[in-house]
Amino acid sequence: MSHPDGAEQGRPARAAYASDPSRSRGRRHPEAAAPTRTEYQRDRDRIVHSTAFRRLVYKTQVFLNHEGDLFRTRMTHSLEVAQLGRSIARPLGLDEDLVEAIALAHDLGHTPFGHAGQDALDDCMAGHGGFEHNLQSLRVVDSLEERYPCFDGLNLTFETREGVLKHCSRANAQRLEELEPGGVGRRFLERTQPGLEAQLCNLADEIAYNAHDIDDGVRSGLLTLEQLDAVELFASFRDEALADHPHLEGRRLLYEAIRRMLSAQVYDVIAATRQALEDGKVRSADEARRSSPVVRFSEPMRTRSSALKHFLLRNLYRHPQVVETTGQAKRVVRELFAAYADDPSQLQAGFAARPDRERAIADYIAGMTDRFAAREHERLTGRRLLP
Ligand code: MG
Fold this sequence. Notes:
This protein has one domain: Orthogonal Bundle (Hypothetical protein af1432), CATH 1.10.3210.10. It has helices spanning about 40-50, 50-55, 75-90, 95-105, 115-125, 135-145, 160-165, 170-180, 185-190, 195-220, 230-245, 250-280, 285-290, 300-315, 320-340, 350, 355-365, 370-380. The protein is built from 18 helices and no strands. It starts with about 40 loop residues before the first helix and ends in a 6-residue tail after the last helix. By secondary structure, it is mainly alpha-helical. Bound molecules: magnesium ion. Magnesium ion (MG) binds near residues 77, 107 and 205. Magnesium ion binds near residues 77, 106, 107 and 205.
């Protein structure tokens, strides 16, 4: 299945179905090749050096940043997605650099305060095109980063941008298609898949948050180990860990169960995806785009993973304590939006000068870290809603 030309030292050969940086569809603004790095390495490096990437340290994943120093942030979440993605990519012969680039960029468009912030901003933007965090991630890498002399954004390759735009409404896909015919919006109109590295990042995202939200949920005291008895995927590996280490308890038991659960999911995806590649006779990256989704769990693992996801939704994301703080966070975003709409001179100069007023406000707010948003809200309203 792999062909030897792509072999690099210490790595398996690039598979025929992998994205090949030397055959990239390229950048919107043509640039000369780098002397030693591939195009996807370069994308990854540009993302790591971006301002939006540094902001992820202070953006909420589930728990608000001020609630504790050890909870996942968007930054540590993104690093875990990249780690899981690379672990799966290497044995499959996929391009690890592309996987890493997409994983590190996939949440760049998230607002402060996680999904609560995004929902509030989407409400504020009703009638002005709405707000989608995936599309915002693309806006960040395509235009909002200001670091290069000759273009806005990071000027990433098509394949990285394709992976960053994980979901997109039809209306937004149509808008993208008008601006960039045949570009990253096209697949949402044609209902085709992205390349395999992008498919992999979607699944690695899910594996990562399912696991780390158990950890953070228990750490916060909102979930108990006993409650997790009801989650087969977790409970089976906890029982396995206890069978091997009968005296294990508390945090070490939690970590060992999560570690085994992560490994099992990684090996499951590798095996199920290999099978799907073989069954579908996928021989190139473009064939993968035209076939049904290839990177996948086995059916039994898909069922167990979905059950875990639903458990977290019911017991953690909708926990009254989480809902209460996210309610406050939504208010911060809504009131910030109203304050800037009322007095645009309060926006940072570059945003204040833009003719597309509402979108400029949304871009400005989306770029904020949790604590900057809370401080800015206090400055503009004189009230403090979050610590
Ligand atoms: Mg994510």
